[in-house]
């Protein structure tokens, strides 16, 4: 099976660790550190939400791509393997979000 675009992008992002911040935006984010990366994830999430209520489908698509890119940078910085996120999503398949919430300890 061909590799998912998010896995391909994650490899590119990993390869930017230690690269020149003047020629790579990803390297610039790594150089600025976790707080800056987390801030960008928050900003892009908010921009996606705003696009969802006030902008066009093309804007939602573009903001979603920005959000996913910055989330992958966050995972790379935090040592999170995307495969673990995919596995967690797969584990949840078939479990209703409402049933899961109701099963939590009160
Ligand atoms: N997918 C992306 C991607 N999406 C968004 N961005 C960048 O994210 C930035 C977001 O813009 P903003 O205005 O919010 O941020 P900013 O004003 O530049 O930053 P701050 O002032 O907030 O620090 C822009 O510079 C975009 O170009 C991305 N930069 C890189 N990629 C991918 O990462 C690969 C490697 O990129 P480099 O590391 O730059 O070589 C690229 O080939 C792409 O595949």
Mean pLDDT over the full residue set: 94
Number of helices: 6
Return the domain count: 1
Quaternary structure of the protein: single chain
Estimate the global geometry from the Cα principal axes. globular
Distance between the termini: 43 Å
Low-confidence stretches: none
State the total count of DSSP E strands. Answer: 0
Question: What series of H and E elements makes up the topology?
Answer: HHHHHH
Question: What distinguishing features does this structure have?
Answer:
75% helix, single chain, HisE, Helix Hairpins, binds phosphoribosyl ATP, globular, ATP binding, 106 residues, mainly alpha, ATP-binding
Overall description:
This is Phosphoribosyl-ATP pyrophosphatase. Belongs to the PRA-PH family. It is found in: Cytoplasm. GO terms for molecular function: ATP binding; phosphoribosyl-ATP diphosphatase activity. Keywords: Amino-acid biosynthesis, ATP-binding, Cytoplasm, Histidine biosynthesis, Hydrolase, Nucleotide-binding. The chain has 106 residues and is an all-alpha fold. It has one domain (3-79): MazG-like (Helix Hairpins, Orthogonal Bundle), CATH 1.10.287.1080. Helices cover 75% and strands 0% of the residues. The protein has six helices and no strands. It has helices at residues 5-15, 25-32, 34-54, 57-78, 82-92, 97-102. Helix 1 crosses helix 4 (57-78) and helix 3 packs antiparallel against helix 4 (57-78). The termini are far apart. The model has no long low-confidence stretch (mean pLDDT 94). The chain binds phosphoribosyl ATP (PRT). The site of phosphoribosyl ATP has 9 residues, from helix 1, helix 2 and helix 4. Phosphoribosyl ATP binds next to helix 1, helix 2 and helix 4.
């Amino acid at each position: 099976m061909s590799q998912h675009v998010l896995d391909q992008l994650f490899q590119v992002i990993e390869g930017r660790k230690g690269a020149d911040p003047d020629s790579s935006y990803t390297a610039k984010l790594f150089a600025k550190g976790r707080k800056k990366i987390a801030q960008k994830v928050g900003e892009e999430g908010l921009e996606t939400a705003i696009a969802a209520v006030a902008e066009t489908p093309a804007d939602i698509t573009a903001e979603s791509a920005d959000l996913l890119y910055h989330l992958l940078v966050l995972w790379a910085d935090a040592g999170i393997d995307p495969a673990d996120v995919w596995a967690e999503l797969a584990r949840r398949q078939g479990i209703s979000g409402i049933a899961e919430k109701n099963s939590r300890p009160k």
